[in-house]
Write a structure and sequence with these properties.
- 2 copies of one chain form a homodimer.
- Chain A is α+β, with helices and mostly antiparallel strands.
- Chain A has a single domain, classed as Arc Repressor Mutant, subunit A (Orthogonal Bundle).
- In chain A, 38% of the residues lie in helices and 20% in strands.
- Chain A has 6 helices and 6 strands.
- In chain A, strands 1-2 form a two-stranded antiparallel sheet. A two-stranded antiparallel ribbon of chain A has the order 4-5.
- The radius of gyration of chain A is 18 Å and the shape is globular.
- At the A-B interface, helix 1, helix 2, helix 6, strand 3 and strand 4 of A face helix 1, helix 2, helix 6, strand 3 and strand 4 of B.
């Protein structure tokens, strides 16, 4: 069982990190969402992580509903792991982290670029203001209390 | 010294996680970028984290160039921590994680919403294709090798 050490924080970023902040979890999702890997051995080969750690992370992601586990062979008993909508919904966060790494930590240029499957052109990710109809720089963004502000979970 | 346990991965998401994947680091940046906190005591009060952990995380972010440390008082000797461009550039990742938490882990609704400071309207974040001129769903995105693909760091 994971320690929920962010539990005093009434913050959706903190709640996201409770699920995906464990080491290897986001890279496992990257492999699932972007590389189409589904099997234990494929994840192990891609990540080079200890089997017990990989097993614990897969179990966490299934328990939290980001992956589903499906039997693909009965003799021998084998399973594969497929992303759910909740898992797919982390793609923007993975893209954003990747873009930061491309910009600040990729001395040889981006190892991978993201493209629109239908037209093969590179995609963009942006913060923008629908009212003003334009993309925003980071310093133009402000947080303000939302509907869940006053009602912190116990 | 942090173990760079993702070092076999030629991947910008992995490199980003080497810097920001430590517990508390992204929440510390959230407080810096979005709440305008600058002082040790302010971060401590916000996060409720042990002082030695907070100190180590601030040092990491300064060493990696995401925050700068500036003396604001000589007697007594006090410093504050201000975000750099490299730090600000993580805002899209923080917004993306927050939106995921809002959608999947905020039973009372979003604790905070992001607005455009100039007009006070809520902002959007999207993946989109500049060629097709439309936002994309996660399953429409594909990775392909970029300029740094073949040249993995040693």
């Amino acid at each position: 069982m994971l320690g929920r050490t962010y539990e005093g924080q009434n913050c959706s970023a903190a709640r996201a990190l409770e699920v995906v902040g464990e080491r290897w979890t986001l890279l496992l999702l990257r492999d699932s969402l972007l590389r189409g890997l589904t099997r234990f051995g494929e994840f192990q080969a891609s990540l080079g992580v200890a089997k017990n750690v990989l097993s614990a992370r897969l179990d966490l992601l299934v328990r939290e509903g980001l992956l589903t586990r499906r039997r693909y062979s009965e003799h021998p008993d084998h399973h594969e792991y497929l992303p759910t909508e909740k898992g797919y919904d982390l793609l923007p966060a993975i893209v954003a982290l990747t873009r930061w790494g491309d910009r600040w930590a990729a001395p040889n240029g981006p190892p991978a670029v993201f493209t629109h499957a239908a037209c093969d052109n590179e995609i963009t990710q942006a913060l923008y203001c629908p009212s003003c109809g334009r993309p925003l720089a980071a310093h133009e963004v402000r947080p303000k209390p939302g509907p869940g502000f006053a009602r912190a979970d116990p």
